[in-house]
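Researcher: I'm comparing several assemblies side by side, and this is the next one on my list. It has 836 residues spread over two chains. Same procedure as the others: predict the full complex and return the structure.
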Amino acid sequence: MNTDDIERYDPLTIEPPIAARWRDERAYSLTPRPSADRGEGDETYYALTMFPYPSGDLHMGHAEIFSIHDALVRHLRMTGKRVLNPIGWDAFGLPAENAARNRGADPRGWTYANIDEQAATIARLGYSFDWDTVLRTCDPEYYRWTQWLFLELLDAGLAYRREALVNHCSSCGTVLANEQVIDGVCDRCGTVVERRPLTQWFFRITDYADELLDDLDTIDWADRVKNAQRAWIGRSEGAEVTFRTADAAGKAEDIVVYTTRPDTLYGATYFVFAPEHPLVAARMGDDPDYQAYREAVGRRSEIERLSSFDSDAGGGRAKRGFRLDFDIVNPVTDEAIPAYAADYVLMDYGTGAIMAVPAHDQRDFDFARQEDLEVRVVVQPQDGEPLDGATMAEAYAGDGTTVNSGVYDGLDWRETKERITADLEAKGLARATVNFRLRDWLISRQRSWGAPIPIVHCPSCGEVPVPAEDLPVELPDDLDFQVQGSPLALHPTWQHDVVCPACGSEDARRDTDTMDTFVDSSWYFLRYLAPQDDTRAWPVDAANVWLPVDQYTGGVEHATLHLLYSRFVVKAMRDRGHLAADEPFQALLNQGQVILGGAAMSKSKDNLVVPGEVYETYGADTLRGTLLFASAPEDDIDWADVSPAGMNKWLARLWRLSLEHLAREAAGTAEDHDADGVRKATARAVVGVSEDMAARKYNTAIAKLMTLTNAVLDATRDGSGGPAVREALTTLVTMLAPICPFVTEELWARFGQDGSVHDQPWPRADTDLLVEHEVVVVVQVDGKVRGRVRVPSGADQDTVVAAAHADESVAGHLDGRDVARVVLVPDRLVNLVLGG
RNA sequence: GCUCCGGUAACCCAACUGGCAGAGGUGGGGGUCUCAAACACCCUUCAGUGCGGGUUCGAAUCCCGCCCGGAGCACCA
């Protein structure tokens, strides 16, 4: 056959009309919409991918995750699942404000233009999202319910306002978000950022700390993500111990510390307060040296915290201390020990004060050496050189026996820990407690492209929630982004254009902060159930059926923020009766990154590969196939190692084989010369690809489809090919459909098949074809391969051993010696172990 | 320092629950086609699995100790 007569594979011509049709016809919209009715029993499936942030067009990372997600979704549909597959945009955030400030753009217009661009690319690439679910978090119809969520949490006592240290830039006259502070300076003007106390809104996520930790065991997430959350939550068990200032009777004050090692109390040779501790401020506030110290620490701490360290431990960081003019009494030794303020003690962990045990804590040890304080060993390791506080080079935090601790000497340190805690508890001086590293979630942002916090401040009523029926509290559309400070707070009328909902006072004003954008994204998966519902945030009955999300896909960079916040919100809403699930996302798949030459791609490095370069040259199918073939979904893809040209070549080959076959049929010459071989190859591919698709190993699924292609190529090389080849090709096209939806749709039509290939049931293999009557069994002698024998499948040990003995090369290695033991792996291998 | 992931052919990547190390691709070499080239097609090339121990009839796979690379967390008492 003359290949010149065959129409070339031309994806740039065949793909766009199909893409447009799918989008215009809403080909992948779920009907009926989600409701309490599961429809067909357990066949419903909620597939979710992290919604994009619209800061320009899609990048390669989006293309990767969407290609993985779409293969998963299309495959599930073909296996009979009813799949909810929504899309939306995480549309509030700082880049829109920056565009407004730097280029005079309108944040709303800028955002919507980017969304349109991304939506067009998504459609062009054939991702089968349900376009009837689209939501944007910056729409008033959406953030109305974000504000409702805030009021729910407020009503539940899970939202509260308190003073907190925040980043403040004196030059810009505004508070900054953590992301706006780069290496301790304002990213706008370069001024060193100060930490200032300001009153801010928090969500009480710490109320759920234990449950957030424990329920990690119930969800199917990668260990690294779970571990990141465990570390972030940071549960520790210890005791609160009461110390006392060394003052005359009557004047002494109690001061409580938290420690995980109450067994080392006898080794506490000094005492440290956080610099801003209220007891210190009360006693030292007038001391000019102390004031200077505090100022220096406050100014520098942020820079220190954000700078990197090449030290061998956290203790390598310089510690700035200040000797206070009073002492503290150690409750077990009754000694007066010196008190310090030092910046290595944090005000917002534990009680903001510690007992320092330099012999057994590296940070305390470093500080003690620096200040020349006593290092007293109270735990001796079981073996090795005994520790000497005067000469030891580092703290010892390992196991050991208690020493220098009165009646507790000689006990294992764990035993000492329990006994000391119990003894002090009996005297009212201690209490066993659990502590968490997790802090409450600060959600106030001094920004203007976000959901306004629905609170009115009234001079007589205080903080008054905006009544639910008055939501949304809408952003004004005439913000001036050129002002120094928060445009919303500096808007001439917005905050005053309100009366107190409680008393009607005209002096009331709106809260001018907006919510952290992570609040927007902490519940969007619930809104997808009914994005147009203007009577409630989500339908409770549908939520009870569809939550948790069956499969969530997205980047691992959200391990401790978005994923933790969403879990908190679901648990809180559950406790308010708005849904039944304990967790938002039952299974999580984290895709790898797309990198280039071993380094992350970025605009600043000018090493960006964008999806357009690929799909405008080779088409969307090649882009999708390339990304899925490059590696397993979880692994990184180095673009330097992949070959879109190779993927394109394979698709072109499949195209050519298909059209050649159709030409044979048209010419009436379609006959198989090896029908059995082709059918067997087809059945083998169906079995293998089905397994791989179910396990989401798209790279090996594609390899097996290539193998089948090669088998068809071999079978048709002589120009023959009949029904078996047609079956092989249509089956191949069906199985490739989730990965390369366009070329498969086109070929499906060319093969004269009805409907869309994407509506076909997933192929089943004729496994009878795969039953072998004879198998080749590998023969090992003492574990080394010495030959192969052909035996009937299912042959028993005697038969196989007899066949092995009959094999010349095997017999040579047996050398007449006795076989002491036979290990048989049926139909695969036999190992003859010779006697001593 | 702690946690997680990875290390197999020139390169990327496979190998079910321990059972013949190779499915697939890239690249290299040779060839067919062509006036020539590109494309396409055909043939071919290439590792004993990072290192050292151990368990086992048998280890890329399991265990222990290292080395290298990547990611995350780190003054949390």
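Model: For your comparison table: Chain A has 24 helices and 33 strands.
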